């Protein structure tokens, strides 16, 4: 029967083992974490005492001695956004398979919360995965110099990144709308700090100029369903016949508001979303949207991070991975309304 530590019910510590063996606690720590640094006889006594006391290493103490915590931080700007559901599942499954614990943090669309979280995780995580970072390029580079990092949907030279290629899908969406006769189209922009929103607009503006159609940017809008009402009103006021929204949440909110105003979708206004989140095909009408392999993006990000954490394990390392996207056409887009 295993002995209790010093006659108590508390778990045994390295200090209890040190008392039994007549050695310093630091010697016990070395014997259990780096056995080759301790005399074989001393190590055998320490291991026997540890077994007798049923000693279980403290994870924090182990982290201090090994420099590893066995945990990885995953930061997302809004945990209630369904886009991140599949992403989180992808990182969780891949981390679990590699023996790591996922520490999930909602950074609340705030660069300040994100910065403080990154600093805190330096002590409690081996590395971090940051989705849709709101930090500046300089802040991200500085953070990546202090802790192994992979970003998702944020491309900064010098920081390993998984990039979902939604800019190319915006061109697909534009061609789809042009084929339906639309020539006045709006892009409902996301947050000013969103690199993805800027890249999508740049790609869309370039494609529109090349095709000779009028595309204007409206917003910015918060990436939430509640923002859809303001976005819909802005679209109606601008006189466009079709909209490409920053994400599905804004697009779904637009559908609700347009219905309230008696504006038919797609007969009077066509709407395109982005992300193909859960529920996009349940809308009325079902939402045309840009789909991407979100769960796979999470898995790839973990693989890239593990390559940094275990460079001797082989498998190479990538500094950038581009995930393809495609347009999924549903009922929210249709022929442009006839003009008088």
UniProtKB/TrEMBL annotation:
Ranges where the record places region Disordered: 315-340
TM ranges are none
- Enumerate the CDD domains for this protein: HTH_LacI, PBP1_LacI_sugar_binding-like
Which GO molecular function annotation, any one, does this entry have? DNA-binding transcription factor activity
Q: Which domain of life does this protein belong to?
A: Bacteria
Q: Which Gene3D superfamilies does this chain map to?
A: 3.40.50.2300, lambda repressor-like DNA-binding domains
Q: Which residue numbers delimit the HTH lacI-type domain? A: 12-66
Name of this chain's protein: LacI family transcriptional regulator
């Amino acid at each position: 029967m295993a002995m209790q530590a010093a006659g108590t019910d508390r778990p045994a510590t390295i200090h209890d083992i040190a008392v039994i063996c007549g050695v310093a606690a630091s010697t016990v720590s070395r014997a259990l974490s780096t056995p080759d640094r301790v005399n074989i006889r001393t190590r055998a006594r320490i291991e026997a005492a540890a077994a007798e006391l049923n000693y279980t290493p403290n994870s924090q103490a182990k982290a201090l001695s090994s420099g590893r915590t066995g945990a990885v931080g995953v930061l997302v700007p809004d945990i209630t956004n369904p886009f991140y559901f599949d992403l989180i599942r992808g990182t969780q499954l891949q981390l679990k398979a590699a023996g790591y614990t996922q520490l999930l943090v909602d950074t609340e669309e705030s660069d300040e919360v994100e910065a403080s979280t990154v600093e805190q995780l330096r002590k409690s995580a081996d590395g971090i995965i940051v989705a849709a970072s709101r930090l500046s390029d300089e802040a991200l580079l500085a953070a990546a110099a202090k802790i192994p990092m992979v970003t998702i949907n944020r491309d900064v030279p010098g920081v390993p990144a998984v990039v979902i290629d939604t800019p190319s899908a915006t061109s697909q969406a534009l061609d789809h709308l042009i084929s339906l006769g639309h020539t006045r189209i709006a892009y409902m922009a996301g947050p000013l700090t969103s690199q993805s929103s800027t890249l999508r607009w740049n790609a869309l503006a370039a494609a529109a100029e090349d095709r000779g159609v009028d595309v204007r940017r409206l917003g910015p809008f918060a990436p939430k369903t509640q923002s859809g009402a303001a976005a819909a009103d802005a679209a109606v006021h601008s006189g466009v016949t079709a909209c490409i929204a920053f994400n599905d949440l804004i697009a779904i909110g637009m559908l609700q508001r347009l219905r309230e105003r008696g504006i038919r979708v797609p007969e009077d206004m066509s709407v395109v979303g982005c992300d193909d989140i859960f529920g996009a095909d349940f809308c009325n009408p079902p939402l045309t949207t840009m789909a991407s392999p979100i769960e796979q993006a999470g898995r790839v990000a973990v693989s890239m991070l593990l390559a940094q954490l275990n460079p001797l394990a082989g498998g190479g390392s990538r500094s950038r991975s581009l995930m393809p996207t495609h347009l999924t056409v549903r009922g929210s887009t249709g022929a442009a309304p006839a003009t008088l």
